[in-house]
């Protein structure tokens, strides 16, 4: 599985997305991350392992604490991939808008130089 596949697989789960949203505001421990959920701490730990394997978070030791932190570089790679598709579809929608404008104005549709 590619890095991008692993990233999107991890992001497919709403609990993991909620964990990432929480970590976007700062580091947190497993206990802190499990508070808003009805899931057990071991279940949250499993989600954290998936996020860590995907490179979306890091975990460290701080004495007895094991804080988790978001890893923005991995999200940036996924964002870049999505951005390329956004540019493609923006161009296609602009071309469609132009065609519809021409049709509304009564012009015959035809190939256009863009």
How many strand segments?
A: 2
Q: Separation of termini?
A: 37 Å
CATH uppermost class of the domain at 3-72: Mainly Alpha
Q: What fraction, in percent, of the residue positions are helical?
A: 55-70%
CATH fold assignment of the domain at 3-72? Arc Repressor Mutant, subunit A
Radius of gyration over all CA atoms, rounded: 22 Å
Global outline: elongated
CATH architecture of the domain at 3-72: Orthogonal Bundle
Output mean pLDDT: 89
Classified in CATH, the superfamily of the domain at 3-72 is Winged helix-like DNA-binding domain superfamily/Winged helix DNA-binding domain
SS class: mainly alpha
- The number of helical segments is 5
How much of the sequence is in beta strands? 5-15%
Q: Low-confidence segments, ≥5 residues, pLDDT <50?
A: none
Largest sheet: 2 strands, antiparallel
Strand order of the largest sheet: 1-2
Question: Secondary-structure element order, as H and E?
Answer: HHHHEEH
In short:
The chain has 114 residues and is mainly α. The chain has 5 helices and 2 strands.
Task: Furnish the topology, listing elements before pairings.
Elements: H1 3-11, H2 14-23, H3 30-34, H4 41-53, E1 57-59, E2 68-70, H5 72-104
Antiparallel strand pairs: 1-2
Describe this structure in words.
By secondary structure, the chain is mainly α. It has a domain of 70 residues: Winged helix-like DNA-binding domain superfamily/Winged helix DNA-binding domain (Arc Repressor Mutant, subunit A), CATH 1.10.10.10. A two-stranded antiparallel ribbon has the order 1-2. Strand 1 and strand 2 form a beta hairpin.
